[in-house]
Write a structure and sequence with these properties.
Structural class: alpha+beta
Strand order of the largest sheet: 2-1-3-4-5
Shape: globular
Strand content: 15-25%
CATH class of one domain: Alpha Beta
CATH topology of one domain: Glutaredoxin
Length: 147
């Protein structure tokens, strides 16, 4: 195989381990920002850790292979993940008030104050249950809707 083919195979294996191809939702959380504005760095860091903890406890997010990003270790096949949620930490979602801010796709639902009990509710009610937590929604932008 060529280096390109090897690289693509690694990426496919990582994607499979993360359940990409079988996901229902993807949550982006503004956390650990380089220039914190919507919340403190510490608050957003705690929210990110909480999100990781709860999605793991509920078994709704799959982990990447142990060899990911370690090019000295050869990739070994992994079982496809069974998670339905992918979570991504982003530096800034450009709202910069009442954070941490989160957006969930494909629903396009934007949330404010995503920490503590609010974060727990969003995970359980929206990510798992499919219902937005309306009192913390400040915008909806369904990108799949026809324009």
């Amino acid at each position: 195989m060529t280096d390109v083919a090897d690289g693509l195979q690694r990426l496919r294996m990582i994607a499979s381990g993360l359940s990409i191809g079988g996901l229902q939702r993807h949550m982006f959380l503004c956390a650990q920002q380089s220039t914190p504005r919507c919340s403190t760095y510490e608050e957003s860091k705690a929210a990110w850790r909480q999100l990781k903890r709860i999605t793991k406890a509920l078994d709704i997010a799959s982990a990447p292979p142990k060899w990911q990003a370690n090019f000295s270790r050869p990739p070994t096949p992994v079982e496809p993940g069974n998670g339905t949620i992918l979570r991504s930490k982003v530096d800034c979602l450009r709202i910069c008030e009442r954070g941490p801010i989160a957006v969930i796709y494909p629903d396009g639902v934007w949330y404010h104050s995503v920490a503590g009990e609010v974060l727990d509710r969003i995970v359980r009610e929206h990510l798992v249950g499919g219902r937005a937590v309306d009192e913390y929604v400040f915008a909806v932008d369904d990108l799949s809707a026809p324009s």
